[in-house]
């Protein structure tokens, strides 16, 4: 488990992380989201003890990561593909990392297979695409089979096949009982793997909860198609219902399908389609950002 406890960090007199607390539980993928500059990467760097917190602490399985007898078995970290050494080969770098951690060098070949870099292991990292670098970085993070995993924007640069691979990999690590903390701007993909979501904005946690809680609170809506769509929209709006164009119909917000259908029917409309819709993680993310900016509240 990764336990972030009331951490604070300032740079140049500006507080970029302000009393952030949350947990990434064992057996779950915790999605870590927020706009650029929200403080996500700083929090991840504090978890890895690359950056020291001004106040608060981050515990990994009950103690700071750096104090573990074998830190790399406690926490696997991938924060940036830019730090990989261009002049080394993929397999050469993994073998070097294995020796530095006291891991059998045979583990390097296992990891090449694990992340799907077969055929490219003997090429210099300088020749790797961003997606290949991302895979290699994940391989290094998994070198010592850690019980916790931190990944910062691992989807960047991946093609569709690699994204599907990453999806299965991340969920497999979590289902094996490990904690995964995954930062990403790719909401559609994150929505397919995350069990819980923590959202930062301007250095503070503004929303947290299970994926279901995150995407459904205050987000009731239904999809409507009608023979006379303009008349249906007019009837809904006359009742104070927000209705916006979507696909071949409209989305009606904060209303149950039964009531929406009754409004259209009473106005003489004929429905072609009526269904309840669950918003996506991306929908909820932008709704939460908008609410925070409109109210100035940081929950």
UniProtKB/TrEMBL annotation:
SMART domains membership: AAA
InterPro entries reported for this sequence: AAA+_ATPase, ABC_transporter-like_ATP-bd, ABC_transporter-like_CS, P-loop_NTPase
Boundaries of every ABC transporter domain copy: 2-227
SUPFAM superfamilies the record matches: P-loop containing nucleoside triphosphate hydrolases (SSF52540)
One matching Pfam family: ABC_tran
GO molecular function: ATP binding; ATP hydrolysis activity
Keywords for the protein's UniProt record, in alphabetical order: ATP-binding, Nucleotide-binding, Transport
Family: Belongs to the ABC transporter superfamily.
Listed name of the protein: ATP-binding cassette domain-containing protein
Native species: Mycetocola reblochoni
